[in-house]
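WARN no homologs supplied; continuing
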Amino acid sequence: MIRIANPDESAIVARRLDHEFTNSRWETKTSSEKVFAQSFANQVGDIGAILRAILSAVFFTLLLVAGNTAAQSVRERTAELALLKTLGFTHLQVLGLVLAESLLLVGTGGALGIALAVAVISRGDPTGGFLSNFYLPAGDVVLGAFLVVAL
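OK structure emitted
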């Protein structure tokens, strides 16, 4: 490991060092710590594809859990729903109330999740410098909002 005084000269120092050991038994390939950490991440594979697969499974599971929770809520509240029907609410109005409650819960949870993610990322790299390119693009925040609406 070599420390240099001026980071702007790192490419020059790296080339000089690699040139010094060219065609020797101990040939070198000099890189920055950032590139070194990235090479470890690349050894794992396509992290983006792995994360997309995991997140797809999580989203599908959330759909199942949300549907089951809504069905359970309706089953537990049949007396309340029957009272609404007795008071003159139509099938569509009762359905609208149940769906509005579900949308409110999902929307609130999704908004809190997105806000928490933005808050954590705005404080800097949560990995303590291991992943120096750790950031949350605006497009991903929009995608998260779209997924909350889709859910």
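The longest helix spans residues 91-122.
OK
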